[in-house]
Amino acid sequence: VLKGTHDQKCDIWSLGVITFMLLSGMPPFAGRDEQAILRSVRAGKYSFSAPVWYDVSFEAKQFIVRLLTKDPSRRPSCMEALQDPWLQKTQSGDQMPPLDTSVLENLHHFAAAGVMKRAALGLIAMTMSTPQVRQLEEQFRALDKDGNGVITLEELTNALTEKLNMSREEARTVFSKLDVTGDHEIHYSEFLAASLELHIADNESLILDAFRKMDRDGSGSISLENLRTILGEDYMGTRIEELLRECDINGDGQI
């Protein structure tokens, strides 16, 4: 693209950049300004030396290397990329971990939590790195039986009734609480937020980070306007004013 010509191999390169960012939380090409970044792109220089890569498999790194091959003629096609050993291993059914009942219990607890707590967990979920949530990612895949990238009502209901002896009616209630977007599917971000409670109980830095994200003006407290800026006028059908009252223990209009 930088040379003025491009074909579908540019999309393969872009996929490499996206995969790099999904696995590390950072872009592969960096620089102090736009020109420095472009020089890095042209040179094709990137690194797996950051600590976040320590727990990423060799196969995953090799997949990125193939996609980010500088010479387009040596870059794989879409079909060749789909046959990569890392993707084939990931899609293999025998790699699926058993479903952990503690994860299902977390989902149940999340559904019973206050709306403000669910909103805070959602913010934390969006900032966690891939290594921190790899186990939960595997559990999401274990629940997503048909592998379409979302958890359906039937998939969650079957898991909750089988593993926790929950009634189907109660399972449907849990599902509705997790379905933040209201599209009758549980997306990965929604599942992650619901599964985090026990994982962050002893991690004060994650809790503090969520507080700071809500404290938009850095005042040391969360105001009604802060919540409105982040969540809009309501969250999951609950007015922002009610969210504030839920946590405003001393009644001073802020958290």
UniProtKB/TrEMBL annotation:
SMART domains: EFh. GO terms for molecular function: ATP binding; calcium ion binding; protein serine/threonine kinase activity. The chain crosses the membrane at residues 12-30. CDD domains: EFh (cd00051). Residues 131-166, 202-237 form the EF-hand domain. Pfam families: EF-hand_6 (PF13405), EF-hand_7 (PF13499), Pkinase (PF00069). Gene3D superfamilies: EF-hand, Transferase(Phosphotransferase) domain 1. The keyword Membrane applies. Keywords: ATP-binding, Calcium, Kinase, Membrane, Nucleotide-binding, Repeat, Serine/threonine-protein kinase, Transferase, Transmembrane, Transmembrane helix. The keyword Transmembrane helix applies. It comes from the Eukaryota. InterPro entries: CDPK_Ser/Thr_kinases (IPR050205), EF-hand-dom_pair (IPR011992), EF_Hand_1_Ca_BS (IPR018247), EF_hand_dom (IPR002048), Kinase-like_dom_sf (IPR011009), Prot_kinase_dom (IPR000719). Residues 1-87 form the Protein kinase domain. Its cofactor is Mg(2+). Belongs to the protein kinase superfamily. Ser/Thr protein kinase family. CDPK subfamily. This is Calmodulin. It comes from Perkinsus olseni.
